[in-house]
């Protein structure tokens, strides 16, 4: 039998349930189609909080953020960045509140909202982990690479610039306002399930050598091999993992409630296996759930599937089995 590394656990802490902090960010102006502002409410209605509680997690719902009363900045907006001023206000407040929550030791789950949410959420947790001396890696589960900049974008929709912003690409330097910017390196970003990229976006990704597992690779090698490669990389560097889950990662026949459907996405079982393997790794310390548009959904089907996938990420299993995730996170 192969040798399995044993993690030494402090038993004075191991019985303490993981603390989950849920925070909604009803943003929808970053996408071309409005409606994702109802995503947080749909996920709660679909039973997200009660499911997490059945997994014996300590769950606190911080409600939904609002930009009412948030001061508008005066920097010059980029030429090609739709609704820049509103998204700037959202990004600053998501980053500020997300950082405060991460500092409590809870695992933040950010509910969107379109994918511009991650410009604030990932910045928040990256800032927190930088201060702990740990690298934050981001697994981007998405049909789209979202690695455009104001200089490369065709649509000027800012949800397509989120991943590029996280990696410090130029063009949106003032987006966070007074909030400190905590970029990640391109090799700390892993795009997974990608099946739609613009020409200039593809060239920039190749230049930056960002890790990409597109649907062709998933078809050839399967999700288990590709996810384990990412897990091994993060573990080898002593890092932690943020999962940014865009529901259009799933095939539209599985999850129709999105505004940017692309055929040929992940199946129901492939998506669950991704989440189960990530749970087993014990590396996930924060998450986004984005781009759910209840107005385009079919009787809440996409919301329910998204909730089930979050459940798999945090320990819901078909049968009981011992996994490395049963151990306390190293260093806690």
SSE inventory with pairings:
Blueprint: H1 11-14, E1 19-25, H2 39-45, H3 48-54, E2 58-64, H4 84-103, E3 107-112, H5 117-131, E4 136-141, H6 162-166, E5 189-194, H7 199-208, E6 211-214, H8 215-221, H9 223-236, E7 240-246, H10 268-281, E8 284-290, H11 301-313
Parallel strand pairs: 1-2, 1-3, 3-8, 4-5, 4-7, 5-6, 7-8
Task: Outline the structure in words.
With 332 residues, the chain is of the alpha/beta class. The chain contains 11 helices and 8 strands. It has a single domain, classed as Ureohydrolase domain (Arginase, Chain A), CATH 3.40.800.10. Strand 4, helix 6 and strand 5 form a beta-alpha-beta unit. Helix 4 runs parallel beside helix 5 and helix 9 packs parallel to helix 10. It is globular and about 55 Å long. The N terminus and C terminus are likely disordered.
* Cα radius of gyration in angstroms: 19 Å
Shape: globular
Order of helices and strands: HEHHEHEHEHEHEHHEHEH
Helix count, DSSP H or I runs of 4 or more residues = 11
The CATH architecture name reads 3-Layer(aba) Sandwich
CATH superfamily: Ureohydrolase domain
Average pLDDT number: 92
Distance between the termini: 30 Å
Q: Spans with pLDDT under 50 lasting ≥5 residues?
A: 1-13, 324-332
